[in-house]
Design a protein that fits this description.
Helix content: 25-40%
Number of domains: 3
InterPro entries: Actin, ATPase_NBD
Pfam family, one: Actin
Function: Component of the SWR1 complex which mediates the ATP-dependent exchange of histone H2A for the H2A variant HZT1 leading to transcriptional regulation of selected genes by chromatin remodeling. Involved in chromosome stability.
Oligomer: single chain
Subcellular location: Cytoplasm
Organism: Mycena chlorophos (Agaric fungus)
């Protein structure tokens, strides 16, 4: 059975087949170049486009939801073509991510594309966080309670899960994502230096290359006021010669400047842009910062198990890979967590891929692949007919078949809130009773059953809050050997 994974995000589509071979990352846009007047769809932007200056983007997704179905179909057609995945949908099962709180009409149209346009034999759809309990992000066995912080292109969501099910009434959204940060950087640079308002491609690379999350905003701001030669924070980004190269680069400390180079001097812009995630009011956005949003989400959960959520906070999404992001969030969560709580943040820094011998690790993957690998970890569950909708079921019942099964599995946000909270809490109470009768008598809820190597030793912070930062691989060798066989 061929299992196709499609993580269709606002900026890019991450697609692949479970088994040998890495995923493909394709721009989710139809792009027109002002230089050669040509139009490029998806992967063609990287493989065929030469002049990346002043590109005009036609984005299928705006503010997190599909609004241009013609553009989206063009990109999906390219992804499934022989030039990219080269798969036969008729003989394939699809695992697809969808936005949190996706609109019913968008869900129905997506189902029609899956089963009528592409004729997949079966499919399952769910938000990225719904797949996270199937991963090794929190270790094996995974915890019963967790919070996923998913910071992507359009939004940042805080998503609690109990017993593998999303607690929808406690999900919180922060209207800050990668697109907003890139636009903010374009405005700052255009006002202070070069006009870069039309250079989305370049400025997105500048953001990913130069920006970091400050641990002391005022001190870093003062440091940038020094002479450029003395300010260690200041970097020089050499703009590309777009007829020869696609992206620029940061000048090395020992590199001699050339008169013909066009340079962006990146000072406080490096940390002022990611700061918006933690202080949205800096740009007039009347919303709480990320730490307060996490605290507000956990506060809506049953009080007697809130500590388990504080102890299992996972980070996914491209924005969480800013240098210093995890450390800054940890420090801010310490100040809002109840006294005596264990605040633990988990983040995957490496992935285990099934085609590598002996479960070797590949480092350096961008965390935009987090949702893709979570969906891959979900693939063995496809053997259950209760989780997938076949094409025959769709043709007989329509989109209601997908809604019915997703609600039964509680992967759909329209599930009854009372059912989610009641069932999940009841499961937790049963599990707690069994644990209390175990031979060693230890309370596994405090550790979540995690057996991982810690990057940093535990410290006792002020207020009695214990903090730990853990980086864990996505799966064990044995687990991914199962995926390899399945693929």
């Amino acid at each position: 059975m061929c299992v196709v994974i499609l993580d269709s995000g606002g900026s890019s589509v991450k697609a692949g087949v479970v088994g040998p071979g890495p995923p493909r990352v394709i721009t989710n846009a139809v792009v027109r170049s002002k230089g050669d007047k040509a139009t490029y769809i998806g992967h063609e932007l990287e493989t065929k486009c030469i002049d990346h200056s002043a590109l005009a983007y036609r984005l299928p997704i705006e503010k997190g939801y599909i609004v241009d179905w013609d553009a989206q179909k063009a990109v999906w057609d390219a992804v499934l073509s022989t030039q990219v995945l080269n798969v036969n949908p008729i003989a394939s099962t699809l695992i697809m991510t969808e936005p949190y709180f996706n609109l019913p009409k968008i869900q129905e149209t997506t189902d029609e594309f899956i089963f009528e346009e592409y004729e997949f034999r079966a499919a399952v759809k769910a938000p990225p966080a719904a797949f996270m309990p199937y991963t090794a992000l929190f270790g094996y066995p995974g915890p019963e309670c967790m919070v996923i912080v998913d910071s992507g292109f359009s939004f940042t969501h805080v998503v609690p899960l109990m017993d593998g099910r999303i607690v929808w009434e406690a999900v919180k959204r922060l209207d800050v994502g990668g697109k907003l940060l890139t636009n903010q950087l374009k405005e700052l640079v255009s006002f202070r230096q070069w006009n870069m308002m039309d250079e989305t491609y370049i400025m997105n690379h500048v953001k990913e290359t130069c920006c970091f999350v400050s641990q002391d905003f005022k001190a870093d701001l003062e440091s940038c006021r020094l002479d450029n030669r003395k300010a260690t924070i200041v970097q020089e980004y050499i703009l590309p010669d777009l007829m020869k190269e696609k992206a620029g680069r940061v000048r090395r400390m020992d590199e001699i400047a050339v008169d013909t180079e066009q340079v962006l001097v990146m000072g406080n812009e490096r940390f002022a842009v990611p700061e918006v995630i933690f202080r949205p009011d800096d740009i007039g956005l009347e919303q709480a910062g990320l730490a307060d949003t996490v605290a507000a989400s956990i506060a809506l959960l049953p009080e007697d198990i809130q500590g388990m959520f504080w102890a299992h906070i996972g980070l996914i999404g491209g924005n969480t890979k800013f240098p210093g992001f995890r450390t800054r969030l940890l420090r801010e969560l310490e100040s809002v967590a109840p006294a005596g709580s264990d605040v633990v943040i988990y983040q995957s820094d490496e992935y285990v891929l099934p085609f590598l011998p002996s479960g070797l690790f590949l480092n350096g993957f961008s965390s935009i692949l987090d949702a893709y690998y979570a969906a891959a970890a979900f693939a063995p569950a496809l053997s259950s007919p209760d989780l997938t909708v076949t094409r025959e079921e769709f043709l007989e019942e329509g989109s209601s078949a997908m809604r019915r099964k997703m609600r039964a599995a509680e992967l759909d946000w329209q599930t009854s809130v009372e059912t989610v909270e009641g069932d999940a809490r009841g499961t937790y109470q049963e599990s707690s009773t069994e644990e209390s009768e175990s031979e060693d008598g230890e309370d596994e809820s405090s550790s979540g059953g995690v057996d991982v190597d810690e990057e940093e030793a535990e410290d006792e912070a002020e207020g009695g809050v214990k903090t730990t930062v853990v980086a864990h691989a996505w799966g064990s060798e044995e687990y991914f050997s199962t995926l390899s066989i399945l693929g």
